[in-house]
Backbone:
């Protein structure tokens, strides 16, 4: 029973985070884009990465979830 509860809790947490990230990319995309900069090493890489992610919302969501 304990493993089930832990797995359910983890799944619930993931679902909440997924919904939060989806809402944020929809409602505050510039703030979410700024978060991408934390993962991109060089400043000149930031723009192309964000532009590519904005064109593919599912990829952007996947990126933010990782």
Residues:
């Amino acid at each position: 029973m304990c493993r089930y509860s832990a797995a359910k809790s983890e799944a619930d947490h993931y679902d909440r985070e997924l919904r939060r990230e989806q809402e944020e990319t929809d409602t505050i995309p510039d703030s979410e884009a700024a978060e991408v900069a934390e993962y991109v090493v060089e400043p000149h890489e930031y723009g192309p990465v964000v532009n590519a992610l904005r064109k593919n919302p599912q990829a952007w969501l996947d990126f933010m979830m990782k």
The mean pLDDT is 89. The chain has one domain: 18-65. Residues 18-65 form one domain.
